[in-house]
Design brief:
Layout lengths: L1 H14 L7 E5 L11 E7 L17 E7 L2 E7 L10 H14 L3 E10 L9 E9 L27 H13 L4 E8 L8 H9 L4 E3 L3 H9 L4 E10 L10 H24 L2
Parallel strand pairs: 1-4, 1-5, 5-9, 6-7, 7-8
Antiparallel strand pairs: 2-3, 3-4, 5-8, 6-9
Organism: Pedobacter ginsengisoli
Function: The purine nucleoside phosphorylases catalyze the phosphorolytic breakdown of the N-glycosidic bond in the beta-(deoxy)ribonucleoside molecules, with the formation of the corresponding free purine bases and pentose-1-phosphate.
GO cellular component, one term: cytoplasm
Length: 271
């Protein structure tokens, strides 16, 4: 990985005139609107970056965006990668490794998720304060490079408490309904059955999705403070469960996205 990472980072530096981002951002399904807030200086297609995995989803753009957001230098992934696309966990999290090598000191992650908590409704936001990982493999599986992080990284506080508190204050000040809760990561791409939704609620989940946790694990491995937020795009309540389509999920995400963008933008300005 070290050689591949070196090649990737050197290519990015050449193409961006050694742009040094302070903050990394991962934008989830239907949540690319934050890019419109960035004063874009450089854009790189994933397909042109050596060793970089390519998003196979038609609704994920597949670009690295470099620029300034509220006077902070940022690099944003417009389109993330998923285990269900066939990539290994190491490939999925390779961009986070590259961001760290480029200089980021904080990571902000967004996703679209299904609500498991009856008090959390479709269109609401949820700041992630913990997670349960039900995906089948850790991105840290295999030999460990101690220059990147320890063999057994601590995960007692995977999401930065200070950033969580600040985000909730921002939401309250802007009259945005925003919860805190536990995110459960599953493999996908299929959505869950009634019995599975019930199980996920019983074990402590407030929302369920198919991403985020691998990136968060790797960020913690490299001692990067993380903030993550979900747009709740559907409701996995077994007692009233109805079929949901991808189009509905994306539409709900797009409607709620401006609220998420406001929180992220203002939160980034505090750093």
């Amino acid at each position: 990985m070290f050689q591949a990472l070196h090649e990737t980072v050197e290519y990015i530096k050449r193409k961006t005139d050694n742009f040094q981002p302070e903050i990394g951002i991962v934008l989830g399904t239907g949540l690319g609107g934050l890019v419109n807030e960035i004063q874009v200086e450089y854009q790189l297609m994933y397909s042109n970056i050596p060793n970089f995995p390519i998003s196979t989803l038609e609704f994920h753009t597949g670009k690295l965006i470099f620029g300034k957001l509220n006077d902070k230098r940022v690099v944003a992934m417009q389109g993330r990668l998923h285990y269900y696309e066939g990539y290994s966990m190491q490939q999925i999290t390779f961009p986070i490794r590259a961001m760290k090598a480029l200089g980021i000191a904080h990571l902000f992650v967004s996703n679209a998720a299904g609500s498991l908590n009856p008090e959390f409704k479709k269109g609401d936001l949820m700041v992630i304060n913990d997670h349960i990982n039900l995906q089948p493999e850790s991105p840290l599986r295999g030999s460990n490079d101690s220059d990147m992080g320890p063999r057994f990284p601590d995960m007692s506080q995977p999401y930065n408490r200070t950033l969580i508190k600040q985000a909730i204050n921002i939401a309250n000040n802007n009259n945005i309904k925003c919860h805190q809760g536990v995110y459960i990561a599953v493999t996908g791409p299929n959505l869950e059955t009634k019995a599975e939704y019930n199980y996920l609620r019983i074990i402590g989940g407030d929302a369920v999705g198919m991403s985020t946790v691998p990136e968060v694990i790797v960020a913690n491995h490299m001692s990067i403070p993380v903030f993550a937020i979900s747009v709740l795009t559907d409701e996995g309540f077994p007692e009233v469960l109805e079929p949901v389509s991808l189009e509905e999920i994306i539409e709900t995400a797009k409607i709620a996205e401006p609220k998420m963008t406001k929180i992220l933008s203002q939160l980034i300005s505090t750093l």
